[in-house]
Amino acid sequence: MGRGKIVIRRIDNSTSRQVTFSKRRSGLFKKAKELAILCDAEVGLVVFSSTGRLYEYTSTSMKNVIERYTKAKEESQQIINPNSDIKDPSQINIHLDIADDNRINAILTVITTTDKKYTTPACEFTGKP
């Protein structure tokens, strides 16, 4: 017999919410550790509780993971279009809608440093999201 489905929404009871946070946090950290060991992946995980407490896990060092993430993000922006006016990733806005028939409609909006605004026509992707 399998487990029942739960509705994903905020837990109103603070004690239950804290217990759930603790259990799910430990499960998430366990999965991160398994991913790092089984797949030889460099994993960095940062979680803040509702009270602001920091929990973190890294397979190497957090500094190395953050530096690698920053470098990879900068490189991926340059790969998209090295001559682009877009220097700040916050200038890109992607809006996804899931239609009733499970089609995904995507609209990409880009604002360049010259204040020009480009919007792609809606793209349709078939298949389940």
UniProtKB/TrEMBL annotation:
Pfam families xref list: SRF-TF
SUPFAM superfamilies linked: SRF-like (SSF55455)
GO molecular function: protein dimerization activity; RNA polymerase II transcription regulatory region sequence-specific DNA binding
Subcellular location: Nucleus
Domain spans labelled MADS-box: 1-61
Record keywords, A-Z: DNA-binding, Nucleus, Transcription, Transcription regulation
Listed InterPro entries: MADS-box/MEF2_TF, MEF2-like_N, TF_MADSbox, TF_MADSbox_sf
CDD domains in UniProt: MADS_MEF2_like (cd00265)
Gene Ontology cellular component list: nucleus
A single GO BP: positive regulation of transcription by RNA polymerase II
Gene3D superfamilies attached to this UniProt entry: Transcription factor, MADS-box
Name by which UniProt lists this protein: MADS transcription factor
